[in-house]
């Protein structure tokens, strides 16, 4: 690696670290600062800002990824469908054998929010802004920098475990619920050679289906 390449690499790492810090401040720190009365709205605003900021910082990676997918659209569609089926099978089995499965605090909060007074903002955040921001943080920022197999393996484990923890706090039922989806997103990101656009589209598809399911159940 030449001195110019090292400098470019170091800059990329710094940008990624700063974005990770900004993300957690916007999504978790800001709601704590404003308090319970404005906390829910702060989460929506913070997530939206984090998504826009990430798209700006990693715009070259996103654009390159979208261009690359033009010739791989069928592969992406089949991959998304395959992983949706995989998750559905795991959830169906877990529902039968794990007591209280599917009752994680994060899942319950999402259902309450979707059926609450800020339904439109909740659905937009859940189905669009959160997937974009989370993929840019947990995949691109945490995994995209890794230059070799060892560093990529470590980054993948850290990214995956942190993602599951933030969604499920490592309760047994929550861990089982979110692990298949997390593994699916990581697999798609790596399957498409760290194409952040691929995992973003997959994440949007997964969350959109979940939102549709919750809304449909609430109307029933």
* Apparent shape: globular
Secondary-structure element pattern, one letter each:
HHHHHHHHH
Share in β-strands: under 5%
Low-pLDDT runs of 5+ residues are: none
Write the topology of this structure:
Elements: H1 3-34, H2 36-57, H3 59-69, H4 73-97, H5 105-114, H6 119-143, H7 149-168, H8 172-191, H9 196-219
Helix pairs in contact: 1-2, 1-6, 2-6, 4-8, 6-7, 6-9, 7-8, 8-9
3D structure, described in words:
The chain has 220 residues and is an all-alpha fold. The chain has one domain (64-219). Helix content is 86%, strand content 0%. It has helices at residues 3-34, 36-57, 59-69, 73-97, 105-114, 119-143, 149-168, 172-191, 196-219. Residues 119-208 form the CAAX prenyl protease 2/Lysostaphin resistance protein A-like domain. This is CPBP family intramembrane metalloprotease.
Characterize this entry briefly.
This protein is mostly helical. It has helices spanning 3-34, 36-57, 59-69, 73-97, 105-114, 119-143, 149-168, 172-191, 196-219. The protein has one domain (64-219).
């Amino acid at each position: 690696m030449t001195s110019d390449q090292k400098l470019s690499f170091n800059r990329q790492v710094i940008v990624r670290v700063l974005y990770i810090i900004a993300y957690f401040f916007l999504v978790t720190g800001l709601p704590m600062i404003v308090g319970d009365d404005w906390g829910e709205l702060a989460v929506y605003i913070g997530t939206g800002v984090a998504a826009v900021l990430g798209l700006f910082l990693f715009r070259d990676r996103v654009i390159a990824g979208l261009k690359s997918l033009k010739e791989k659209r069928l592969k992406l569609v089949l991959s998304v469908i395959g992983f949706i089926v995989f998750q559905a099978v795991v959830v169906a089995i877990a529902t039968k054998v794990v007591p209280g499965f599917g009752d994680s605090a994060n899942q319950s909060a999402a259902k309450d929010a979707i059926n609450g007074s800020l339904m439109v903002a909740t659905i937009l955040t859940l189905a669009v802004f959160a997937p974009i921001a989370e993929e840019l943080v947990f995949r691109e920022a945490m995994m995209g920098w890794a230059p070799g197999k060892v560093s990529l393996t470590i980054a993948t484990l850290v990214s995956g475990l942190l993602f599951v923890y933030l969604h499920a706090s490592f309760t047994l039922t929550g861990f089982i619920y979110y692990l298949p989806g997390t593994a699916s997103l990581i697999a798609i990101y790596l399957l498409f050679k760290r194409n952040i656009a691929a995992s973003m589209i997959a994440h949007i598809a997964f969350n959109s289906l979940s939102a549709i399911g919750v809304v449909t159940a609430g109307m029933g």
